[in-house]
């Protein structure tokens, strides 16, 4: 097998009609092949899953229980149903899964490292979740320690914040070696550490931008809908439809932002422009890539769900999910890297490889 550490310039295509650019299926196959060919790229997701599985566990019930009481009192006719769903979530959710929020994980599910994945998590959480620990062989699903259930909801919120910060750093640690594998060439450990630290700061900046944009959009829309409701006009359905449609467009055009930040060594705003430029020039292939990747990612969890009921199946699931998750991330980087270099002059460009 040819080592895929080289760039894409030597490849020629499969149905794209553009020299040097692979098709969607070929790109995904190349990503999966590279994940198998370079097993060291799987270290972060495998170790992280072992920590989530066998390490310390923390329940979110201290937060979901009071939220359920609020929904029962103030949630209207659907309040009891919402409280019941919150209670069920609190019983099954493990707060430590937030540690793998941005990295492929057998237990935390599909990484929420793009707006698209975040939107799908909001609309269809069951689709994005990882393996149910109750399906794991015998009682191994609960790990080797007892589950900690904090007495106060503030503890849950504080720990969740810390875990998300750590998760963002793990995203950089996971992505930087993958970017090097896609770009080609070799870099020393010191350079990788610098790239990882800078990438993490930029990723944090991106997260803050997304949060700020969400607040600026959702805040006024929610207020307008509430005012309209006071006058007897229920705009909830229309607002939800508009947000889903608008959010879907934003999700597609920002699909490769993290790839741009890590591969191109650029800031979050420049990364957003690069992702937009690539998707605008390749809208159809980008849509097909997003759909195919999502089907593979979510579909694989149905397989792992069945396999974890046996000890050998647990091993296969841990390694298989790491290969699939890492391979899809590599494929996303390859898809972006192939096409960013073909943008005409005047379009945003990635930073120089230095």
How does the major sheet shape up?
Answer: none
Q: Gap between N and C termini, in Å?
A: 28 Å
| Oligomer kind | single chain
The secondary structure category is mainly alpha
Number of separate helices? 13
Strand content: under 5%
In which range does the helix fraction lie? 55-70%
Mean pLDDT: 84
How big is the Rg?
21 Å
DSSP E strands, number? 0
Q: Runs with pLDDT <50, length 5+?
A: 1-15
Shape, per Cα inertia axes: globular
How are helices and strands ordered from N to C? Answer: HHHHHHHHHHHHH
Could you please describe the fold and organization of this structure?
It is a single chain. The protein is mainly α. Helices cover 66% and strands 0% of the residues. The chain has 13 helices and no strands. α5 (115-123) packs antiparallel against α9 (236-253), α7 (153-183) crosses α8 (189-230) and α11 (268-281) packs across α12. Residues 1-15 have low confidence and may be disordered.
Can you give keywords for this protein?
354 residues; mainly alpha; 13 helices; 0% strand; disordered N terminus
How would you summarize the topology of this molecule?
Layout (H helix, E strand, L loop, with lengths): L23 H14 L5 H12 L6 H14 L4 H14 L22 H9 L1 H4 L24 H31 L5 H42 L5 H18 L3 H8 L3 H14 L1 H25 L3 H30 L14
In brief:
With 354 residues, the chain is an all-alpha fold. It contains 13 helices and no strands. 66% of the residues lie in helices and 0% in strands.
């Amino acid at each position: 097998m040819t080592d895929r550490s080289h760039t894409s310039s030597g490849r020629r295509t499969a149905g794209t009609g553009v020299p040097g650019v692979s098709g969607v299926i070929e790109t995904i196959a190349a990503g999966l092949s590279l994940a198998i060919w370079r097993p060291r790229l799987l270290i972060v997701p495998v170790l992280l899953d072992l920590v989530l599985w066998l390490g310390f566990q923390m329940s979110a019930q201290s937060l979901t229980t009071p939220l359920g009481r609020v929904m029962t009192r103030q949630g209207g006719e659907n309040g009891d149903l919402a409280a019941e769903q919150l209670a069920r979530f609190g019983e099954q959710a493990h707060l430590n899964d937030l540690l793998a929020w941005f990295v492929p994980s057998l237990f935390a599910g599909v990484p929420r490292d793009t707006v698209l994945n975040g939107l799908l998590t909001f609309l269809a959480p069951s689709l994005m979740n990882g393996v149910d620990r109750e399906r794991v062989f015998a009682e191994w699903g609960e790990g080797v320690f007892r589950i900690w259930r904090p007495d106060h909801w503030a503890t849950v919120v504080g720990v969740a914040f810390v875990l998300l910060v750590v998760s963002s750093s793990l995203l950089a640690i996971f992505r930087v070696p993958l970017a090097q594998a896609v770009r080609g060439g070799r870099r020393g450990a010191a350079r990788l550490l610098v790239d990882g630290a800078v990438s993490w700061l930029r990723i944090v900046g991106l997260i803050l931008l997304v949060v700020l944009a969400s607040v600026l959009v959702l805040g006024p829309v929610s207020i307008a809908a509430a005012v309209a409701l006071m006058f007897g006009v229920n705009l909830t359905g229309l607002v939800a439809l508009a947000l889903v449609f608008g959010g879907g467009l934003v999700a597609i055009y920002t699909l490769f932002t993290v790839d741009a930040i890590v591969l191109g060594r650029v800031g979050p705003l420049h990364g957003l422009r690069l992702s937009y430029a690539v998707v605008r020039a390749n809208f159809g292939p980008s849509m097909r890539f997003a759909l195919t990747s999502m089907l593979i990612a979510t579909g694989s969890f149905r397989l792992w769900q069945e396999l974890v009921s046996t000890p050998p199946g647990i091993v296969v699931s841990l390694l298989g999910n790491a290969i699939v998750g890492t391979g899809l991330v590599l494929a996303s980087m390859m898809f972006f890297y192939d096409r960013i270099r073909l943008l005409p002059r005047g379009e945003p460009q990635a930073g120089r490889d230095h």
